[in-house]
Design brief:
- The structure holds two protein chains of two kinds.
- Chain A is built from 15 helices and no strands.
- By secondary structure, chain A is mainly alpha-helical.
- Chain A folds into two domains: about 60 residues, no CATH class; about 210 residues, MetI-like fold.
- By secondary structure, chain B is an all-alpha fold.
- Helix content of chain B is about 70%, strand content about 0%.
- Chain B has 14 helices and two strands.
- A two-stranded antiparallel sheet of chain B has the order 1-2.
- Chain B starts with a helix and ends in a 9-residue tail after the last helix.
- The chains are: A mainly alpha, B mainly alpha.
C-alpha cells in the first residue's frame, strides 16, 4: 500500500481471466462489425458495375424487362458497339487528346513548378497565387471568349486542338502538385549540382527529374484521366464535327441513337470505362500516391 | 532596391541579371498561358458582360442591360443559383462526411484491406459520362435494378432522375459513389495521427466518441478544410453529370435537330455552369452568358480566398 501513490494511477489493474475473455469477445464483435460494414460498403461501390455488366450481355428484349440476370449471354453486343460507325474514331480521338495532352502538360509544367519551388525571385508568391487562382477557376467562366478566340481568330473549332494547344503552356493543377512535391527535395541536392557546375536545366534534368519520377507519374496519370473523362471541352469545341468527337461525348450520342437499348448502351459504357480501370491496375501505386499528394499540405 | 543594386560589384549585378533571365525562361510557358488562357478571357468576359453580342454582328454597348436581364427578367437565374448552392451545401457536406467515414472504415479493416481499398476507390475512376449513364440505368424508374430491389423489399420507388424532388439526391448519390479521392486523402491523414495520442486518451478513460472528438478531429482538421474547399469549388463547376443525367432521363439527346434544355426535370438539375452554356451556346446571348460567368468567377474566387487566407499551410514552403 505504501508504494501505491508512486504507481501511475491510471494503469489498469492486472486483469483476471474473465475480463480477458470479455475483452477478446469484444474485439471479435468489433471485428465482425467493422467487416460487415465494409462488406456492405463494398456492395454499394461494386454492385453498380455488376448490374451494368449483366445488362450489357442481355438480349434486346430482356434488357427492356426488370430482370437482373441474363438468360442468354449475348456477347455479340460488344461487337455491335465496337463496330458502330464512329466508335473507333472516338476512341482514336480520345487517345490522341489524352496522350498528347499529357505529354505537353508535363513538359511545359515541370520547369515552371521547379522555378516556383527552388528559385528565389520577386513576385514568386504572387505567381503562386495566380497558379492557385487558375486551378480553382471553373472552365465555364472563360469559355465564351475562348470559344470566340478559337473560332474567329484561329478557325480551329470543330477539332480538339483548342483543348490540346493550351496544354503546351502549363496546367495550373499540374504545376501546383509538382511544386508541392519538389519542395520536399532537399536543397542540398540542387546546390551540390550547381557547385559541380551544372546549369539550371541540367540540374533539373539530371538531378531533380530522377527524384521526381513518382510525382511526375502521378500528375501524368491525373492529366491523362482528366482528358479521357473530359466532356465539357469536346462538347464546346468538337460537337459540330462528328469526326472530332471523343468517347465521353460520343457515348452520350450513342444513347440517343440506341434509345431503348440499355444493353448496348451499357456495353458501350463499359468499353469507355475499361481502359481507365486497366490503367489503374497497372499504375495503382502512382495513382494513390498522387491523390495523397493533393492533400498532404492541406 | 535600385540603390542597392547599383552599389553591387558588376560581376554580381551580371549574376543577378542572369538569374532573372533564367527565372523568366523557366516560367515562360506558363506566363504565356496565364496571359492568353486566363487574363485575356477573364477581362474579355467582363467586357462582354456589358455588351450586346450574338456572335455575328459587331458587339454594341449595352450598359447594365445584361445584368438587369439576368437578375430580374431571365426566369431561370435564381433557380440555377439555388441549385448550385444546394449542391455546395448538401452534396459537399455529405461527401465529406461519407469520405471521412469510409476513410475510417478502411483504416479499421484488418482482413482483406487491399480488396476493400480497391473496391471503394474504383468508382472514382469511372469517367463522369459513363458513371452518369450507369446511374441513369440503375435508377431508371421503370426497369432499373434499384427500384426493382426496392419493390421486392416493399419500399417506395422514387422517380430519381425523372422526379424534380429526387433528381438532386440522385446526383448526390452518384457523387458519393465516386468518393475514392476523399477516401484516400482522409485515409492518409488518419494514419498520420500519432498512435501515442490515442493510447494516452485511452488511459485517460476516453470512449471511442471522445477519442474521435479530441484526438482524431483536431489532427485531421486541415484535411477537412481542404476537402470542404475543393468540394465547394467542384460543386461550383458541377456540369457534366447534371447535363448528362437530364439528357438521358428526359430521352432528349442533342445533336440531330432536337435541342435539349438543360435542367430536366423542371429545372431541378439546372446549375450556373449550364446557364453559361445555355445562354452562350444555345441562345447566342454572349452578354448574358458572360454576366453569369462573372458571377461564377466571383463566387469561386471568394471560396478560394478562404482557402488561401487560412493558416492551413496550403502553400507552405516546407
Amino acid at each position: 500500500m505504501a508504494l501505491a501513490p508512486t504507481l501511475p494511477r491510471r494503469r489498469p489493474l492486472p486483469t483476471p481471466a474473465g475480463t480477458a475473455r470479455a475483452a477478446r469477445r469484444r474485439a471479435a464483435l468489433h471485428w465482425v462489425a467493422v467487416h460487415s460494414t465494409a462488406v456492405a460498403a463494398a456492395l454499394f461501390f461494386l454492385l453498380p458495375f455488376v448490374f451494368v455488366f449483366l445488362t450489357s450481355v442481355m438480349t434486346d428484349h430482356q434488357a427492356l424487362t426488370s430482370d437482373l440476370w441474363p438468360q442468354h449471354w449475348q456477347w455479340s453486343n460488344y461487337g455491335k458497339v465496337w463496330h458502330t460507325p464512329g466508335f473507333l474514331t472516338w476512341w482514336r480521338n480520345t487517345l490522341l487528346y489524352a496522350t498528347l495532352g499529357t505529354v505537353l502538360t508535363v513538359v511545359s509544367s515541370l520547369p515552371v513548378a521547379y522555378a516556383l519551388a527552388k528559385f528565389r525571385f520577386r513576385g514568386r508568391n504572387l505567381a503562386l497565387m495566380a497558379v492557385v487562382a487558375m486551378m480553382m477557376l471553373p472552365p465555364q467562366v472563360t469559355v465564351v471568349p475562348m470559344y470566340l478566340f478559337w473560332a474567329k481568330q484561329l478557325h480551329l473549332t470543330g477539332s480538339l486542338w483548342p483543348l490540346i494547344i493550351p496544354m503546351a503552356f502549363g496546367d495550373a493543377f499540374t504545376i501546383f502538385l509538382l511544386r508541392q512535391f519538389l519542395l520536399t527535395i532537399p536543397k542540398e541536392y540542387v546546390e551540390a549540382a550547381r557547385i559541380d557546375g551544372c546549369g539550371e536545366l541540367r540540374t533539373l534534368l539530371r538531378v531533380v527529374l530522377p527524384m521526381a519520377k513518382p510525382a511526375i507519374a502521378a500528375v501524368a496519370l491525373f492529366q491523362f484521366f482528366s482528358c479521357w473523362n473530359d466532356y465539357f471541352g469536346p462538347q464546346i469545341y468538337a460537337s459540330e464535327n462528328p469526326d472530332a468527337w471523343t468517347l465521353s461525348y460520343g457515348l452520350e450520342s450513342f444513347k440517343g441513337a440506341h434509345h431503348t437499348n440499355w444493353n448496348l448502351t451499357m456495353a458501350a459504357t463499359l468499353l469507355v470505362l475499361a481502359p481507365v480501370i486497366v490503367l489503374f491496375f497497372f499504375a495503382q501505386r502512382a495513382f494513390v500516391e498522387g491523390v495523397t499528394l493533393t492533400g498532404v499540405k492541406g | 532596391m535600385a540603390l542597392v543594386n547599383s552599389a553591387l560589384p558588376p560581376a554580381l549585378r551580371r549574376k543577378r541579371r542572369r538569374e532573372r533571365a533564367r527565372t523568366l525562361a523557366f516560367l515562360s510557358p506558363w506566363l504565356v498561358g496565364f496571359g492568353v488562357f486566363f487574363l485575356y478571357p477573364l477581362v474579355s468576359t467582363v467586357y462582354f458582360s456589358f455588351m450586346h453580342y450574338d456572335g455575328f454582328a459587331a458587339p454594341t454597348f449595352a450598359g447594365l442591360q445584361n445584368w438587369d436581364y439576368v437578375f430580374t427578367k431571365y426566369p431561370f437565374f435564381w433557380q440555377g443559383l439555388g441549385n448550385t448552392l444546394w449542391l455546395v451545401v448538401v452534396m459537399v457536406s455529405l461527401r465529406v462526411l461519407f469520405g471521412l467515414g469510409i476513410g475510417m472504415l478502411v483504416t479499421k479493416v484488418k482482413s482483406g484491406s487491399g480488396f476493400f481499398r480497391t473496391a471503394f476507390y474504383l468508382p472514382y475512376l469511372a469517367p463522369p459520362v459513363a458513371a452518369t449513364m450507369a446511374f441513369a440505368f440503375l435508377l431508371n424508374p421503370g426497369t432499373g435494378p434499384v427500384n426493382h430491389l426496392l419493390g421486392e423489399l416493399g419500399l417506395p420507388q422514387p422517380g430519381w432522375f425523372t422526379d424534380p424532388s429526387w433528381s438532386k439526391p440522385a446526383l448526390t448519390l452518384l457523387a458519393m459513389w465516386g468518393i475514392g479521392d476523399l477516401m484516400v486523402i482522409f485515409m492518409a491523414a488518419l494514419l498520420d495521427v500519432p498512435a501515442e495520442q490515442y493510447e494516452a486518451a485511452e488511459l485517460d478513460g476516453a470512449g471511442s466518441f471522445q477519442r474521435f472528438r479530441y484526438v482524431t478531429l483536431p489532427n485531421i482538421s486541415p484535411i477537412v478544410v481542404f476537402a470542404v474547399v475543393t468540394g465547394v469549388i467542384q460543386a461550383m463547376q458541377y456540369y457534366t453529370q447534371a447535363i448528362v443525367a437530364g439528357k438521358v432521363a428526359s430521352g432528349v439527346i442533342g445533336g440531330s435537330g432536337q435541342q435539349f434544355e438543360p435542367g430536366y426535370p423542371h429545372g431541378s438539375t439546372w446549375t450556373l455552369p449550364q446557364m453559361v452554356y445555355s445562354l452562350g451556346f444555345q441562345r447566342f446571348d454572349t452578354g448574358s452568358a458572360c454576366v453569369v460567368a462573372v458571377i461564377l468567377f466571383a463566387l469561386s474566387m471568394a471560396f478560394t480566398g478562404v482557402l488561401l487566407r487560412r493558416k492551413s499551410g496550403f502553400l507552405a514552403e516546407d
